[in-house]
C-alpha cells in the first residue's frame, strides 16, 4: 500500500502501463508546487499532453483538491497527488521530468532577487529529494530568481554526486513567448510565425532579446529596438503591477512552462531538431557561450537533455552593450546561489 493520495482509476493504470511497455512512450512528470498560481494551470495543461503517462502533483498545501479536480479530465495521464514533505520522495521516485514552480512570487515593487531568501531554501530542499529519488530526471526550474536557483540546484546535485549539467534547465521560455508576442505586434505578424532568441538570464537587464536575429528576418528602427527591449525585460513587472499584489504571471507562465516541458519530452523521445532557449550550465556541452558558469542561450534538446549549446551568433552594437550589462549582473546572481549551498 502507498501512502500518497490515490485518486487514479484502475483503467488508467492499465493504460499507463501499456504506454510504458508499448511503442508510444509515456513519460512520468512531477510538478513541485502544483497547487500554486502557476502549478494549477500547468498541471491542467500537462494532463492534456499526450506524451505524459503519469503526472505527480506535489505541494505543501491543497494538492488533494487540485489532484482530484484534474484527475477527472478524460485524457490519458494518470494523476496522483502528494501532500507535504513526508510524501516528497514518493512524488519523485521514477520521474523522467520534474518541473519546479514552488515558492513565493513577486509583489509590486519587488525584484526577483527579493524572493531569494524564501525560494533558495525551498529549491534546495526539493533538489535534495530529486538527487535521492530520481537523479536521472530532467529538471525544469521555474522558481525565481532563476539566475540563482539554477546554480543552487547544481550545487545540491554536485554535493550529492548526481550533477549532470545536461539535465538541469532554468525556464526562460516566458521571455521568448513575450518577445514573440511583442515583436509580432510591432511587425503586424502572427506571433506563431515569429521566433526571437532571448539569451542571458531571467531578470531585468539579464534578459537579452537578440532582435537582430529575429525570424523571419526583419529590421527595426532605433525607437522600436528600445521599446521592445524594455518591454521584454519588464514584461514580468508589467503583470505584477497589473495584478496589484495578487502575484505575478501565472497563466502565460504555465503556457510557457508546458511549451518548454513538451520540448524536453520530445527531445527525450528522440525527436530531431528540438531547439529552445534555456538557462543552462556552461558545462552542459564543450562550448562556453560566455565565460560565465551559467547562461541562457539556444540549446538543442535530445535524449540526454541538453545535447548542444549554440553560440550567440553575430550581435549588433546595442546587443553587445546589453550583453556586458547582463554578464555583470548574472555573475553576482550566480555567485549568490553557489555560496548559499556552500554555507
Ligand atoms: P504561488 O504562491 O501562487 O504558488 C507557489 C506554490 O508553491 C504554492 O502552492 C506553495 O504552497 C508552493 N510551495 C511553497 N513551498 C513549497 C515547498 N517547500 N514545496 C513544494 N511546494 C511549495 O506562486 P506562483 O505564482 O505559482 O509562482 C511560483 C514561482 O514561479 C515564484 O517563485 C515566481 O517568482 C516564479 N515565476 C517564474 C517565472 C519564470 O519565468 N521562470 C515566471 C513567473 C513566476
Textual characterization of the structure:
The protein is of the alpha/beta class. The chain is 43% helix and 17% strand. A nine-stranded mixed β-sheet has the order 3-2-1-4-5-6-9-10-11, with helices on both faces. The chain has a two-stranded antiparallel sheet with strand order 7-8. α2 (39-47) packs across α10 (251-269) and α5 runs parallel beside α6 (146-160). The longest helix has 26 residues, at 317-342. The model is unreliable at 6-23 (pLDDT under 50). 1,4-dihydronicotinamide adenine dinucleotide binds next to α5.
SSE map:
Blueprint: H1 10-21, E1 27-32, H2 39-47, E2 52-59, H3 63-71, E3 78-83, H4 88-92, E4 97-100, H5 116-133, E5 138-141, H6 146-160, E6 168-170, H7 173-187, E7 198-200, E8 207-209, H8 222-233, H9 235-243, H10 251-269, E9 274-281, E10 294-302, E11 305-309, H11 317-342
Parallel strand pairs: 1-2, 1-4, 2-3, 4-5, 5-6
Antiparallel strand pairs: 6-9, 7-8, 9-10, 10-11
Amino acid at each position: 500500500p502507498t501512502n500518497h493520495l490515490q485518486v487514479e482509476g484502475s483503467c488508467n493504470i492499465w493504460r499507463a502501463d501499456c504506454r510504458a511497455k508499448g511503442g508510444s512512450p509515456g513519460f512520468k512528470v512531477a510538478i513541485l508546487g502544483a497547487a500554486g498560481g502557476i502549478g494549477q494551470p500547468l498541471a491542467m495543461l500537462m494532463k492534456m499532453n499526450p506524451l505524459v503517462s503519469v503526472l505527480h502533483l506535489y505541494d505543501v498545501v491543497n494538492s488533494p483538491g487540485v489532484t482530484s479536480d484534474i484527475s477527472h479530465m478524460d485524457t490519458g495521464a494518470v494523476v496522483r497527488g502528494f501532500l507535504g514533505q513526508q510524501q516528497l520522495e514518493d512524488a519523485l521516485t521514477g520521474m523522467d521530468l520534474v518541473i519546479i514552480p514552488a515558492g513565493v512570487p513577486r509583489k509590486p515593487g519587488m525584484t526577483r532577487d527579493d524572493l531569494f531568501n524564501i525560494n533558495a531554501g525551498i529549491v534546495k530542499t526539493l533538489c535534495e529529494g530529486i538527487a535521492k529519488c530520481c537523479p536521472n530526471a530532467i529538471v525544469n526550474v521555474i522558481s525565481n530568481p532563476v539566475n540563482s536557483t539554477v546554480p543552487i540546484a547544481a550545487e545540491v546535485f554536485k554535493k550529492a554526486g548526481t550533477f549532470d549539467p545536461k539535465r538541469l534547465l532554468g525556464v526562460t521560455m516566458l521571455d521568448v513567448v513575450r518577445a514573440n508576442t511583442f515583436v509580432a505586434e510591432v511587425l503586424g505578424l502572427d506571433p506563431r510565425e515569429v521566433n526571437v532568441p532571448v539569451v542571458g538570464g531571467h531578470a531585468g537587464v539579464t534578459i537579452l532579446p537578440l532582435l537582430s536575429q529575429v525570424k523571419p528576418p526583419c529590421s527595426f528602427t532605433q525607437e522600436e529596438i528600445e521599446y521592445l527591449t524594455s518591454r521584454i525585460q519588464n514584461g514580468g513587472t508589467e503583470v505584477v503591477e497589473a495584478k496589484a499584489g495578487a502575484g505575478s504571471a501565472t497563466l502565460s507562465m504555465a503556457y510557457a512552462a508546458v511549451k518548454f516541458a513538451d520540448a524536453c519530452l520530445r527531445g527525450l523521445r528522440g525527436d530531431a531538431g528540438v531547439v529552445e532557449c534555456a538557462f543552462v550550465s556552461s558545462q552542459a556541452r564543450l562550448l562556453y557561450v560566455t565565460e560565465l558558469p551559467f547562461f541562457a542561450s539556444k540549446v538543442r534538446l535530445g535524449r540526454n537533455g541538453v545535447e548542444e549549446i549554440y553560440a550567440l551568433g553575430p550581435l549588433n552594437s546595442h546587443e553587445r552593450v546589453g550583453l556586458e550589462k547582463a554578464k555583470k549582473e548574472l555573475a553576482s546572481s550566480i555567485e549568490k546561489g553557489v555560496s548559499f549551498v556552500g554555507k
